[in-house]
Amino acid sequence: MAKKLAVIGAGLMGSGIAQVSAQAGWDVVLRDVTDGALARGRGGIEASYAKFVAKGKLDADAAEQALARITTTTDLDAVGDADVVVEAVFEKIEVKREIFQALDKLAKDDAVLASNTSAIPITKIAAATSCPERVVGTHFFSPVPMMQLCELVRGYKTSDETLAAAREFAESVGKTCIVVNRDVAGFVTTRLISALVVEAAKLYESGVASAEDIDLACKLGFGHAMGPLATADLTGVDILLHATDNIYAESQDEKFAPPEIMRRMVDAGDIGRKSGHGFYAH
């Protein structure tokens, strides 16, 4: 019998997780608060499958079957029979805690409750439940169908069984995992990219070098596939600002204090590719 996954949030990350899971044979229920958000999420999945088919990377029948395994709903009760629940909503602790309080009551007793957070300590999210031992971080990377990594994050009370089940899920959908044994804010990957983006933005802000040259230095000097400022534009300057703010609030480490230019860019709506302008014009 196919395993069942519930994904909470049909945005870029949630729909990506739903997409790779359905393609790997999971029955997926994708939940969001509005029909419009669900339609956009499902449309994005259809378009992504179509691209893979056009490139010869996915059989058309397999794409059709995968799409048929995804159902959408605005009803949170739909998590009731899921083996794994992945929350992929906005990076605000209050929103996530509210969802996990509900999942605590609605999900079956042996379900794994996972958060796709990139920066918020899992312990803080798990504390909203009566069963923190079954809460774990499964931090996927964008775009989910293309990126191989999944960062598994232990909360203070996450059990070995929960971590093992989360690894089994992530590996079953084609991901390679690293384990974060202590859920410091930002974990491993977000701390690294945040520190790099903050420093790159400071160099750019103070006129030391252009965005293009800063990124070129990281690509040619360090072998990075993409420079930090181009990464900020791809991820969203607003998303990275939230992440660095979360890490700074938790750690009080000055290297994570975002420079003023990032705040002004977000205020102005210059948040990267999705707005047409960030550190670069798109």
Automatic annotation (TrEMBL):
Belongs to the 3-hydroxyacyl-CoA dehydrogenase family. The keyword Oxidoreductase applies. InterPro entries: 3-OHacyl-CoA_DH, 3-OHacyl-CoA_DH_CS, 3-OHacyl-CoA_DH_NAD-bd, 3HC_DH_C, 6-PGluconate_DH-like_C_sf, 6PGD_dom2, NAD(P)-bd_dom_sf. Keywords: Oxidoreductase. PANTHER family: 3-HYDROXYACYL-COA DEHYDROGENASE FAMILY PROTEIN, 3-HYDROXYBUTYRYL-COA DEHYDROGENASE. Residues 4-183 form the 3-hydroxyacyl-CoA dehydrogenase NAD binding domain. Pathway: Lipid metabolism; butanoate metabolism. This is 3-hydroxyacyl-CoA dehydrogenase family protein. Pfam families: 3HCDH, 3HCDH_N. It comes from Streptomyces catenulae. Residues 186-281 form the 3-hydroxyacyl-CoA dehydrogenase C-terminal domain.
